[in-house]
Amino acid sequence: MAYSLSNNDGSRHKTNIAVLARELEKNVSPAEEISEPSATVIDRMSLVQKLKGNDQTFLQLAESTVSQ
Fold first, then answer.
1. Does a structural domain hold residue 37?
2. Closest CA to 15 of 36, 52, 45
3. Which of 12, 1, 6 is nearest to 51 (CA)?
4. Is residue 7 part of a domain?
5. How many domains does the chain fold into?
6. What is the pLDDT of residue 44?
7. Total Cβ atoms within 10 A of residue 12
8. β-bridge mates for residue 6, sequence order
9. Is residue 12 part of a domain?
10. How deeply is 14 buried, as exposed, middle or buried, from its count of CB atoms within 10 A (0-12, 13-18, 19+)?
């Protein structure tokens, strides 16, 4: 089975999201106003990586986050 955020052993799947972000931002300029309807894209892997959970499984990372 393939997971988007983790490997089969529970370790975090590492991707190079910066390459995708640069490609998406290449031809986009900041908006002065955001019209309705609108959407927000959140890079959850970036949030997970900021938790400094190196060499932890998702279970360990979740347990340490909840216990803080």
1. no
2. 45
3. 12
4. yes
5. 1
6. 72
7. 19
8. 12
9. yes
10. exposed
Q: Report the C-alpha gap between 68 and 51 in whole angstroms.
A: 12
In a domain, 50, yes or no: yes
What is the 3-class SS of the chain, one letter each residue? CCCCCECCCCEECCCCHHHHHHHHHCCCCCCCCCCCCCCCCCCHHHHHHHCCCCCCEHHHHHHHHHCC
Beta bridge partners of 11: 57
Nearest CA-CA partner of 10 in 50, 60, 58, 64: 58
Task: Give the predicted TM-score (pTM) of the model.
Answer: 0.29
Using alpha carbons, list the distances in angstroms from residue 34 to 29, 30, 40, 41: 12, 10, 11, 14
Which residue segment(s) compose the domain that 21 sits in?
1-27+45-68
- How confident is the model over 15-38, as pLDDT tens digits? 676 777 788 888 888 888 888 999
> Which tokens sit at 26?
């290449």
